[in-house]
From TrEMBL:
<protein>
    <recommendedName>
        <fullName>tRNA N6-adenosine threonylcarbamoyltransferase</fullName>
        <ecNumber>2.3.1.234</ecNumber>
    </recommendedName>
</protein>
<feature type="domain" description="Gcp-like">
    <location>
        <begin position="26"/>
        <end position="305"/>
    </location>
</feature>
<feature type="binding site">
    <location>
        <position position="179"/>
    </location>
    <ligand>
        <name>substrate</name>
    </ligand>
</feature>
<dbReference type="GO" id="GO:0005737">
    <property type="term" value="C:cytoplasm"/>
</dbReference>
<keyword id="KW-0819">tRNA processing</keyword>
<dbReference type="InterPro" id="IPR043129">
    <property type="entry name" value="ATPase_NBD"/>
</dbReference>
<dbReference type="GO" id="GO:0005506">
    <property type="term" value="F:iron ion binding"/>
</dbReference>
<dbReference type="Pfam" id="PF00814">
    <property type="entry name" value="TsaD"/>
</dbReference>
<feature type="binding site">
    <location>
        <position position="299"/>
    </location>
    <ligand>
        <name>Fe cation</name>
    </ligand>
</feature>
<dbReference type="GO" id="GO:0016787">
    <property type="term" value="F:hydrolase activity"/>
</dbReference>
<keyword id="KW-0808">Transferase</keyword>
<dbReference type="InterPro" id="IPR017861">
    <property type="entry name" value="KAE1/TsaD"/>
</dbReference>
<feature type="binding site">
    <location>
        <position position="115"/>
    </location>
    <ligand>
        <name>Fe cation</name>
    </ligand>
</feature>
<feature type="binding site">
    <location>
        <position position="111"/>
    </location>
    <ligand>
        <name>Fe cation</name>
    </ligand>
</feature>
<feature type="binding site">
    <location>
        <position position="166"/>
    </location>
    <ligand>
        <name>substrate</name>
    </ligand>
</feature>
<dbReference type="GO" id="GO:0002949">
    <property type="term" value="P:tRNA threonylcarbamoyladenosine modification"/>
</dbReference>
<keyword id="KW-0479">Metal-binding</keyword>
């Protein structure tokens, strides 16, 4: 009987471990962010990320075992994709080693599914629902009928929303990670000061595109002097407003199209305060909105452990050769 699941997350630049109990919920979690490591390069360096996961995982395991009183898991859930292939392999091989030593099975988990299920950590059941998954690497709308039963409604045709935030921040010299820095700058700006496009809102459908908005942002930023703090804040606020309006409108369309009255917001951009405020505004229209708490919007192991707990039928021997994938469609049957 599988009751306690150790979750391992290493898909990009966050190293995480968590212990989840199917009866008692989340027992403990630890997380290490590599932001300081990658900041001098303006973005994630895959090889550096992989090496740091190798260093951090044993230390974090000791920390988690101390935090949870040395409780051993009955199975290990590990992110098997999508993500940086080297970083994924570090986490998966660490999981296999532990599983062989403890003689317990391994459960491969889809990283995006972990994000979609993260609101369940708050002990609510939001399904069936429309889910907005919005992060640095992904922007998509998914109809979630139940855990493991997903229908893709729309996705980005180019940049993800979080990627657009980061690139816009880089154009303004705001450093890494750019998204939160741009959002902070936007708080002091006038969102009506610049007229920026709302991509694909003038046509039907649920796909997204942010490359045109990014280009418009670049052109608008060129005449602004580096020391003109107010205009920089105004442009940041106008950019954020364009992204938020685009995401909000597409969510409205998806809810109408599916007839559902529940919305899940997941992924790192779900921590953006302007987006959270806008989507929470749907409550007045009779929509239930479920947003993961701030700690579980970004990459974490708690959501991976939870996903493993909901998919114990996927458990297999540590020696099983399940694939590790840099790219992996959420709607594939193997997910």
């Amino acid at each position: 009987m599988i009751e306690r699941i150790l979750g391992i997350e290493s898909s990009c630049d966050e190293t995480g471990l968590a212990l989840y109990d199917r009866q008692r919920g989340l027992l403990g979690e630890v997380l290490f962010s590599q932001i300081a490591l990658h900041a001098p390069y303006g973005g994630v360096v895959p090889e550096l990320a992989s090496r740091d996961h190798v260093r951090r995982l044993p230390l974090l395991l000791d920390e988690l075992l101390a935090q949870t009183g040395g409780q051993r898991p009955d199975a290990i859930a590990v992110t098997a994709g999508p993500g940086l292939i080297g970083a994924l392999l570090v986490g998966v091989n660490f999981a296999r080693g532990l599983a062989m030593g403890w003689d317990i099975p391994v459960i491969p988990v889809h990283h995006l599914e972990g994000h979609l299920l993260a609101p369940l950590l708050n002990e609510v059941d939001p399904f069936p629902a429309v889910a907005l998954l919005v992060s640095g690497g992904h922007t998509m709308l998914v109809e979630v009928r139940a855990p493991g039963d997903y229908i893709l409604l729309g996705e980005t045709l180019d940049d993800a929303a979080g990627e657009a935030f980061d690139k816009a921040a880089k154009m303004m010299g705001l450093g890494y990670p750019g998204g939160p820095a741009l959002a902070a700058l936007a708080e002091g700006g006038d969102a009506q000061a610049f007229r920026l496009p709302r991509p694909l809102l003038d046509r039907p459908g649920l796909d997204f595109s942010f490359s045109g908005l990014k280009t418009a942002f670049r052109l608008a930023s060129m005449p602004i002097a580096p020391d003109d703090g107010q205009k920089r804040a105004d442009l940041a606020a106008s950019f954020q407003a364009a992204v938020v309006e685009t995401l909000f409108t597409k969510c409205q369309r998806a809810l109408r199209q599916t007839g559902l009255r529940r919305l899940i917001v997941a992924g790192g951009v779900g921590a953006n305060r302007a987006l959270r405020a806008a989507l929470n505004g749907l409550v007045s229209a009779g929509v239930e909105v479920f947003i993961a708490d701030l700690a579980h919007c970004t990459d974490n192991a708690a959501m991976i452990a939870l996903a493993g707990a909901l998919h114990t039928e996927r458990a297999q021997a540590a020696t099983a050769d399940f694939p590790v994938r840099a790219r992996w469609s959420l709607t594939e049957e193997e997910a």
